[in-house]
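Retro notes (design track)

What went well: tokenization of the new backbones is finally stable.
What didn't: we kept losing track of which sequence belonged to which structure.
Fix going forward: every design gets posted as structure first, then sequence, in one message. First example under the new rule, 181 residues:
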């Protein structure tokens, strides 16, 4: 009787391990979050504000979560190589750095975000401006990355687009409010 129980338990454990391994292999590893907003200002004015990484601390949602956030800057803001380094005790903010990697003047700012705490990961972000009228600019903000296996199981439980999308909507709304004053 004990032998049958142990065999049954072993089968359940093996099936559980195989099931988890299958989920790890089938779960997506890549994610992307993108939101956009229309700002009632000329494209040149919007782009000049958006390319300054320090300004993200005014409109971005994360710095607002921790008024005591420690910030350090390296390089010349608004140019490739400029890096914003942050440290926060708030686990929703954590520690990391964002570096401007490329700027297509008047069109696009590409940056790399390197998270350190609460976990290490790297993601790419972009802000794209597009003139839709002389006094209106569409701003697209995107964030893309990947989760290594088996951490990708997290994406089965959390919809990255919904989770990050709210922060992006809040940030773009703040940028709109600031620029349209």
């Amino acid at each position: 009787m004990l032998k049958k129980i142990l065999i049954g338990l072993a089968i359940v454990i093996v099936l559980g391990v195989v099931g988890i391994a299958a989920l790890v292999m089938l779960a997506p590893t890549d994610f992307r979050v993108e939101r956009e907003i229309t700002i009632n200002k000329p494209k040149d004015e919007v782009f000049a504000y958006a390319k300054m990484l320090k300004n993200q601390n005014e409109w971005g949602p994360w710095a607002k979560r921790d008024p005591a956030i420690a910030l350090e800057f390296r390089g010349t803001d608004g140019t490739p190589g400029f890096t914003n380094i942050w440290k926060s005790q708030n686990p929703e903010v954590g520690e990391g750095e964002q570096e401007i990697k490329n700027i297509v003047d008047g069109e696009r700012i590409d940056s790399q975000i390197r998270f350190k705490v609460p976990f290490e990961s790297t993601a790419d972000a972009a802000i794209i401006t597009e003139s839709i009228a002389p006094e209106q600019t569409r701003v697209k903000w995107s964030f893309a990355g990947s989760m290594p296996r088996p951490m990708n199981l997290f994406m089965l439980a959390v919809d990255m687009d919904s989770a990050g999308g709210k922060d992006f909507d809040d940030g773009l709304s703040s940028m709109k409010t600031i620029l349209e004053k």
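Added context from the reviewer: The beta strands are 30-39, 70-74, 83-87, 95-104, 108-117, 121-133, 136-146.
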